[in-house]
Amino acid sequence: MRAALLACVSVWTLAFALAQDPPARTENELRADLVNALTSERWDDVIAAARGLIARNERDGQAWVNLGYALHSLGRVDEALEAHRRAAQLPGVAGIGAYNIACVHALRGESDQAFAWLRKAMAAGGMDLRRVREDQDLKSLHADPRFKEFLADLVRDAAHEASTQRATASQSDRREARLVFSSATGSAGQIALDWGPVEWKPEFEAHFTGESLNDRRWRFGKDFWTTWDSSLTVSVGDKKLPAGHYYVMLTRQSGGSLALVFMDAALVRDQRLDAMLAHTTRGGVEVPVAHEATTTTQVRLELAFVPDPEQPTHVRLDATFGAHRLSLPFTVEFGS
User: Fold this and answer.
1) What are the backbone dihedrals phi and psi of residue 87, each rounded to the nearest 5 degrees, phi first?
2) Which residues pair with 67 in a beta bridge?
3) Residue ranges covered by each domain of the chain
4) What is the CATH number of domain 27-162?
5) Are the CB atoms for 129 and 154 separated by under 8 Å?
6) Less crowded by CB within 10 Å, the N or C end of the chain?
């Protein structure tokens, strides 16, 4: 009887433990989940991560955009429409939200509403002519004379936008670090880092020892974005960074640790963000880095891959700048 009772208690305890809610995901973890899910088109996971972010901040425009996009991709257009409407009310993503609302109305055959929202999207700026022409969601509008008229207006609007821009041309030195895996039978892949070697200035000391990077991102290089271009998936701690093209930034997390941010370049391009606006970005994969003082001063930002000679798939990324070294260990995965 005692053995049976203990067995029952053990089963009940296990069932109770399994019934408990898992630990809540942090905002950074949710953003990393969202980017990874978007990359692999795991729409249910995108929805879960986006809703988690919205629960923390109802004015997270990018989360509303991604929620609507995932629901839309699953054919759940009624639910998607509500998310698109919320996005259309928020700065920075209002145009995307308006365009997506137009797509829903076009899918429903509601052409009047679709054209009205396309006009709102155009007024918000940043519409892509090719995308509008080729978007299958708008196919029901193609035979309507208003569609041709809208495209003509969009061309004129784009020309006006271009004519009011001030172009600044410049040249700058860029450096590259590469990590290549090869054998007698060929190459398994590579990772390339490209950056502008910014000169050290005394005011940069606050980035490493002060509060200037608290919840703020720095482009971590000169002029254009520092880029990470990889044909291989890597594991950084408990996070995955799928093969792809990323922009890299530096920030300080709420816990005080310096961290590198890997932001999907496609998401940044969609928002037409220059590297000087790195501080306005949201999302991406944030990974803490080890920080130590050096005995010498590195006058220009240097990045280098340092493979483990005993385990080549174990690599360290070192960034040296001023009297500081940041180190990020990661593991390369083949065939993923």
Assistant:
1) -65, -40
2) none
3) 27-162, 175-333
4) 1.25.40.10
5) yes
6) N
